[in-house]
Amino acid sequence: MAFDELRGRLGRSFEKMRETSKMDEMMLNSFLKEITCTLLDADFPKLALTEIERQSQDIINLPASSNKGKLIYEIILTELVSKLDPGRSALFLVKSEPSIVMFIGLRGVGTTKTCAKYARYHRKKGFRPALVCADTFNTNAFFRLKKVAKYEVPVYGSYTTDPAELAAEGIAKFKNEKRDLIIVDTSDRHQQYSTLFEEMRLLSESMNPDLIVYVMDSSIGQAAFDQAQAFKQSFTRGVVIVANINCNSKSCGAISAVAAAKCPMILTETGEKNSEEFEAFEAKPFVRRLLEQEKMRRYTTIMESMTDEGIVDDQNIFFSFFKLINISYVFGRA
């Protein structure tokens, strides 16, 4: 299911609910089932949806005088934060001593493009980045890296066949040139993460990087858990970049899977026409930004003073919340 279809299904469901002048228990149950099924189709964690349904049912069964809208809002907020919390943040580099960052990824996930974009991003932040092509498997790897770097960041490459030796040459060169961020791009020839991690673990031992970045495409959804867990076990100084979050309806599944593996992560896009932004993922601000856009802030104010006399207010709050579940807001500013 494409992400636009996901938004459309959610939007249609809540539009119907908003237009209903009066809603009884049966209608609310039907509404919750429709929404949770849609989110399940989008690869959202089943455990979170089950818990939301269970707790929402408890709220529905409360006396009529209860503030059901506010209570259900709090349930949704708490469950989303809980299931999307990786436990620790992916802190960005600070300018001090030269930092060495090693990028790794499976074939086809866009590691080289993300690597170059990461360099350009830090250049705009005041760093003096440089790129080292340590991919000795692909014959055009050096030229490809120079192209995606858009000639804005210097790139080192040579005919050396040993990736460890090539990386050492490039790192030494850029340290002499007083570059404060040296980013090493590696081979993406592997299709299995187990063989990739084994090869890259040996390479990292020779490089001793300050940070190892594993690029993962969000289209794999909850299947990201095994990769994230294996990555965390293989590298102690690692962070996962989850790419293409806007293009895939399984983005929530991938984010929750990486969070379940307790891997710090960064969200971004890939491709020439996409925004060159990176955001260290933190569950609570992320969820609050989804919930509390300008329209939702108004409904939050309503909830604070809402009584059960206005059942339509409850419906509007539900509608507004799910109308705002759009991964593209991750790059918005509250």
Automatic annotation (TrEMBL):
Pfam families of this UniProt entry? Answer: SRP54
Q: Which Gene3D superfamilies does UniProt cross-reference here?
A: P-loop containing nucleotide triphosphate hydrolases (3.40.50.300), Signal recognition particle SRP54, nucleotide-binding domain (1.20.120.140)
> Cellular component GO terms, alphabetically?
cytosol; signal recognition particle, endoplasmic reticulum targeting
Using the record's annotation, list all stretches that form the SRP54-type proteins GTP-binding domain.
98-292
SMART domains given in the database record: SRP54
Q: Does the keyword Zinc apply?
A: no
| Tree of life domain | Eukaryota
One MF term in the entry's GO annotations: GTPase activity
Keyword terms, alphabetized = GTP-binding, Nucleotide-binding
Q: InterPro entries from the xrefs?
A: P-loop_NTPase (IPR027417), SRP/SRP_N (IPR036225), SRP54 (IPR022941), SRP54_GTPase_dom (IPR000897), SRP54_N_sf (IPR042101)
Q: Name one GO biological process term.
A: SRP-dependent cotranslational protein targeting to membrane, translocation
Name the UniProt record assigns to this protein: SRP54-type proteins GTP-binding domain-containing protein
Question: Which organism does this record belong to?
Answer: Capsella rubella
